[in-house]
Amino acid sequence: MVFDIQKSRLLVTQGLIGGEWSDSDNGSTFTVSNPANGAVLAEVANMGADETRRAIEAAEAAFPAWSAMTALQRSNILEKWFDLIMANQDELAAILTAEQGKPLFEAKGEIAYGASYVKWFAEEARRVYGDIIPANQPGRRNLVIKQPVGVVAAITPWNFPSAMLARKIAPALAAGCTIVCKPATETPLSALALALLAEQAGVPAGVINVVAGARSSAIGGEMTSNPIVQKVTFTGSTPVGKLLMKQCADTVKRTSMELGGNAPIIIFDDADLDQAITGTLISKFRNSGQTCICSNRLLVQSGIYDRFIERLADEVSKFRVGNGLDEDTTHGPLVNEKAVNGVSELVESAIADGARVVMGGARGEQGACFYQPTILADAKPSMRVFKEEIFGPVAPVFKFETEDEAIAMANDTEFGLASYIFTNNLKRIWKVSEALEYGMVGVNETAISSEVIPFGGVKESGQGREGSKYGLDDYLETKYICLGGL
């Protein structure tokens, strides 16, 4: 039975500033709706630059006490937050599905995935080590210590509204930083619910602040221009990431950016076809194609091209598209009508340029935010679906002949986040993996993300890494101390 989120004690509609749950200064709100049916879920406080400024100042005021805590104290609070998230997994998943649209089983998986970062960084908080460097002169000692950067501003997307927030808050708090968060306008309820649980876990007032609002440029502008903020972390599109980086330049803020992707999945003739089909289904169609590491381009060697498409179409035909809150739904809607329009334009452009529709290729009958799971054969590198991030349930399949051709096709993009290859040739695994210009490579596997690995890209897909032992680096300053006269 699906939880009624209107009865949820985790349904919060106010922002969190300095430990106080607050309305917007002018009393305005914005509407959060279910993309599956348009039902209004909540009216959320519509905050702007003034509220963001106060949140930043609250984070600054909370920083000395939080950063002065022992690593063990911060770790224990994060552990309590993890426990509360998992204890409320079903309720959080229902909220997430209602506002974002993904099937309930995927939403539950996202809650656990986000919580895993809280658990991981609760442990990593106690492993922020320094160094003693051998002295270059007598009577000296060279020490290196790590200190928190200070106040962090985080801007998170709508496609993983719970996990992306946890992935940023957890390392920031573990390092001793305080944070101001701006969730996506489409999906603020998941972020506010997590903040409520963090408060219950004992996170002190002002350490986590959340300002939601439809005036994204006003909130983002305050975050990037305010000299109190020492670091901005963003997950979203490359154009917005570039703008934020430019804005941060005036105050020389540290930035970490997880931006757009154009992931290739390369399937060679010698691949295990069953394995490749399973991996493609997960990578391409999870969250209805709305993930930054989705396989955007399917590159299939000529010897198995037709057989691969036939097998893929057979599996995709089994999808059950509908409201994510319905238990039999396997794939939900896109986040809004604008997203559907964008996907539709890309498909229509590909068809006009000669792509063949194997299945789908049209808007869904379930509602305005649905698009049919689609497979396009005979796709060519000149098409927009080769160059642009689709962010929808559309699988364009491109044919290649040789290994070198596949590598060249895969690298023919300004993006470099995730990539995937399927082959049973060990020599090819090494050659292709090293040749691909991507921050992450999955070999005979597409479910590559977890809290233990460094998630991030190269080229215009961003900078910095989230998760793993490297995930604290962007929230720490390295300080050198020279002790003389010894």
TrEMBL record:
Organism field: Parathalassolituus penaei
Active site, renumbered: 258
Gene Ontology molecular function: succinate-semialdehyde dehydrogenase (NAD+) activity
Aldehyde dehydrogenase domain location: 21-481
Family according to the record: Belongs to the aldehyde dehydrogenase family.
Oxidoreductase in keyword set: yes
Transmembrane segments: none
Protein name: NAD-dependent succinate-semialdehyde dehydrogenase
Keyword Oxidoreductase: yes
A GO biological process held by the record: gamma-aminobutyric acid catabolic process
Keywords: Oxidoreductase
